[in-house]
Design brief:
Layout (H helix, E strand, L loop, with lengths): L1 H17 L5 H7 L8 H17 L5 E4 L7 E4 L2 H4 L8 H13 E2 L7 H6 L14 E2 L3 H13 L3 E5 L2 E13 L2 E8 L6 E5 L4 E5 L30 E7 L1 H10 L5 E4 L5 E7 L2 H9 L5 E5 L1 H12 L3
Parallel strand pairs: 3-4
Antiparallel strand pairs: 1-2, 5-6, 5-9, 6-7, 7-8, 10-12, 10-13, 11-12
C-alpha cells in the first residue's frame, strides 16, 4: 500500500508541475514507480492511481496535447485544484499561528506549512508547544474515522471486548474520549478513554448506525475527573464555611448540597474514580472532612497523614 501511495503522489506532483497535458507514455517513463512494468501492468497501475487521486478530489482531466488535437494527455488544472484564498485578516492569521504553537497531536510537530498556505507567517520561537500535548496519535485517527464514517469500533476496555457505535469524540482533562453506545445496548451511552482502549479498530462497514438526533457528545463526558468511570458511589463530605463557596463551584453536576446555618455545607458527590477525588480534597487541607462511606474516609485520612 505504501508503494501505491508513493507512486500516486509522484504522479500528482508531476501533473502539477508539468503545466501542460502530458501523455500516458510520458508519464510512464518520467514518474517513479511505472518504468519497469510491461504495457498491460502499466495501464492497470495508471488507471488505479488515477481513480485513487480522483477519489480524493484531484481533478485529473484529459485534454489535447497540441492545437491539432491528434494526441490527448492528462492535466490537473491549477484553477480547479488550488486552494482558494480564504481572505483571512491579520488577526485571524495571528490566531492560527498561535493555535499551531499552542497544541500538538501525538507528539507530532506543529503544522507550520499549513500557515504558509493560508497566507500567514511562521509562529515565532522554536515551534515548541505553549500549552498542551493533545496526544491521540493513530488511535485517535481510527476513532475519528469511525465517528465520521459511522463505522463500529472494536477494542478491549477494562478486561472486556467491546463493539461500540461511536457518536462523537471529546477532549477533557488531558485525555481523549470516544462517546457512544455498545452494540446490543443502544440506550446506554458511555464515554471510553482512548488511551485505555486496546487494539482499537474500525470495522469495514460504513454507515452501520445513525447518531441520535440532537446528540451532544460533550454532555456524556463528566466535567470533573472523579466522575470518569463506571458504577459511581456517593460520598458525603463536609466543607467549612471558609471554603464552602469554592467547593460548591467545583463539585460538578450530580452533587446534592445542603447548607448549614454557620455557612458550612454537606455535599453528596457521585465518585467513580477515588484517586482524583481524594487528590482534590487534599487541597482543602483540614477544611474538608469525608463523612461517608467509612472506607473512603479511612483512605482519605491515610492520604493526609502520609507514610509512617
Amino acid at each position: 500500500m505504501r508503494n501505491v501511495i508513493e507512486r500516486a503522489l509522484n504522479l500528482l506532483a508531476f501533473l502539477l508541475t508539468a503545466e501542460r497535458p502530458v501523455t500516458a507514455e510520458e508519464i510512464r517513463h518520467t514518474v517513479a514507480g511505472y518504468g519497469q512494468e510491461d504495457d498491460a501492468a502499466f495501464r492497470r497501475m495508471f488507471e488505479r492511481d488515477k481513480d485513487l487521486l480522483r477519489g480524493l478530489g484531484v481533478p485529473i482531466e484529459v485534454r489535447p496535447t497540441d492545437a491539432w488535437e491528434v494526441e490527448m494527455g492528462y492535466v490537473v488544472p491549477e484553477e480547479d485544484y488550488a486552494l482558494e484564498d480564504p481572505g483571512l485578516t491579520d488577526d485571524e492569521r495571528a490566531a492560527l499561528a498561535l493555535a499551531v504553537q499552542a497544541v500538538r497531536f501525538g507528539g507530532q510537530p506543529a503544522g507550520v506549512d499549513a500557515i504558509f498556505k493560508l497566507g500567514g507567517a511562521a509562529p515565532p520561537g522554536g515551534g515548541e508547544p505553549l500549552t498542551a500535548e493533545l496526544g491521540g496519535g493513530s488511535v485517535l485517527g481510527e476513532a475519528y474515522r469511525g465517528v465520521v464514517e459511522h463505522r463500529i469500533l472494536r477494542f478491549e476496555y477494562r478486561g472486556r471486548r467491546r463493539r461500540v457505535r461511536p457518536y462523537g469524540i471529546v477532549h477533557r482533562h488531558g485525555h481523549w474520549y470516544v462517546v457512544g453506545a455498545e452494540v446490543g445496548a443502544p440506550e446506554v451511552v458511555k464515554a471510553f478513554r482512548l488511551d485505555r482502549a486496546g487494539g482499537l479498530a474500525a470495522e469495514d462497514e460504513a454507515g452501520a448506525f445513525t447518531v441520535p438526533a440532537g446528540f451532544r457528545a460533550a454532555d456524556h463526558v463528566p466535567e470533573v475527573p472523579w466522575q470518569m468511570g463506571e458504577e459511581p458511589t456517593r460520598a458525603k463530605v463536609r466543607f467549612d464555611p471558609e471554603v464552602a463557596w469554592l467547593a460548591r463551584r467545583q463539585l460538578g453536576p450530580g452533587a446534592r448540597v445542603v447548607e448549614a446555618e454557620d455557612g458550612s455545607i454537606e455535599a453528596e458527590v457521585p465518585v467513580a474514580a477515588e484517586a482524583p477525588f481524594l487528590g482534590w480534597l487534599v487541597g482543602f487541607e483540614d477544611r474538608a472532612e469525608i463523612l461517608a462511606p467509612a472506607d473512603l474516609r479511612r483512605r482519605f485520612v491515610e492520604l493526609v497523614a502520609g507514610p509512617r
